Amino acid sequence: MSDGGKHDAAADRYDNVSYRRAGRSGLLLPPISLGLWQNFGDPATPEARNIVLRAFDRGVTYFDLANNYGPPPGSAEERFGRILRDDLAAHRDELVIATKAGYRMWPGPMGEWGSRKHLLASLDQSLGRMGIDHVDIFYSHRFDSSTPLEETMGALDSAVRSGRATYAGISSYGPETSRRAIGILRDLGTPCVVNQVSYSMLNRWIEPDLLPLLHESGVGCVGFSPLAQGLLTSKYLDGIPDDARAATPGPLRPEFLSAPNLERVRALQHIAQRRDQSLAQLAIQWSIRDPRLSTVIVGARTLRQLNDSLDSLDGTELTANDLDEIDQFAVDGHLDLWEASSQAH
Question: Are the beta carbons of 197 and 171 closer than 8 angstroms?
C-alpha cells in the first residue's frame, strides 16, 4: 500500500474471490462490498483512505455511497472522490461505484424523496463531489408514495440513457413496490439491476416474498447491515461501551439491545466460537450463504474490522446442522430502520 499518490495495487487481488452475478445482468460483484455510510465523513476514521485501498487490494470492487452519507451530507462522496483521484484513478474501470438519492440532502421541498428533479439534480451533485462523469449504479434510495413511480423510475432511466449511470437500482423497496418498479423499468428498456435491502440474522424480512420475487425477475439482491448496526458483534454482550454507536444518537438505538435480542446474540456468539470465528464473521458468512444475494455491504472503522469482515469468506462452510441451530436464534429482533421506506409519507 502506497503512502501517497498512485496506489500500487496488489497483483493478486482477484485470485481468491468468487464474484457473483447481479441477477441476470452482466454485472459481477464481490461477495462482500464496502459501504461508506458511516466513518467516511468529516471527521472520518483516521484509517479511511487505507480501508478503501486495503479493500481494493483484497478484491472488493463495489463501493457503496449515497448523496447524504457523512456527516455532513456529501462529505463521504467528497472523501471517496479524493481517494479515487489520488490513488485509484488508474483502476476506475475495475470499480463499481454506486450512489443514491431520496433522503434529505438540501433545504426546501425538492431536497428529498423521489421526484425527477431531486434525483437528477442530486446525481449531478454527486458526480461533481466525486469528480467523475458517471456512477456504475444509481439508486432510488427509498420509495416515494407521493410521486408517481413512473416519474421516479423515469428519472433512473434518464440517468442511464444520458450516460451519467451505467445501471439503475432501487433500495429498501418492498415486494409490491419492487414488482411495480421492475416492470416500469423493463418497459422503459432500462432493466432494474439490483434492489439494496437491509438483511441480517435478526432482520430476515426479505426471505418470504421479496427475495423470491427478485430472483424470478432476474434482479440482484444487495444486502446491507449484515451486522445489524453492530449488534451482531461481541461489543454489546457486557453492556454498552461509552464509545459505542449505541451510546450516541444514530442507527443502533438502545432499545435494540433488548434482553431477548442479547440472549440471541450470546447464543450466536457460542456457535461462532465453536466454529473458530468471530460473531461478525459468522453473521456475514450466514448473510451470503444464499446465492440469490449478489453481495453484502459491510462498513469498517478500522483496518482490523475490515480484515475481520473479509476473512469471513475463509470460514468453514455452514452445514445443514449449523443452519438449523442458527435458525433457533436468528429471528426477527425488530431492528429494521428502513421499514417505513416502502410506506406512505
Answer: yes
pTM score over 0.90: yes
- Smallest CA-to-CA distance from 83 within 124, 125, 129, 43 is with 129
Sketch the domain layout of the chain as residue ranges. 20-342
HSE, side-chain direction, 13 A CA sphere, residue 279: 21
SS (H, E, C) 49-115: HHHHHHHHHCCCCEEECCCCCCCCCCHHHHHHHHHHHHHHHHHHHHCEEEEEECCCCCCCCCCCCCC
Query: Helix crossing, 75-83 with 116-130: angle to 10°?
Result: 40
Largest separation between any pair of C-alpha atoms in the chain = 54
Q: Which residues of the chain have pLDDT under 70?
A: 1-5, 239-255, 337-345
For residue 76, the model assigns a pLDDT of: 98
Which CATH architecture describes the domain 20-342?
Alpha-Beta Barrel (3.20)
Q: Which alpha helices (H) appear in 137-224, and where do they start and end?
A: 149-161, 175-188, 210-217
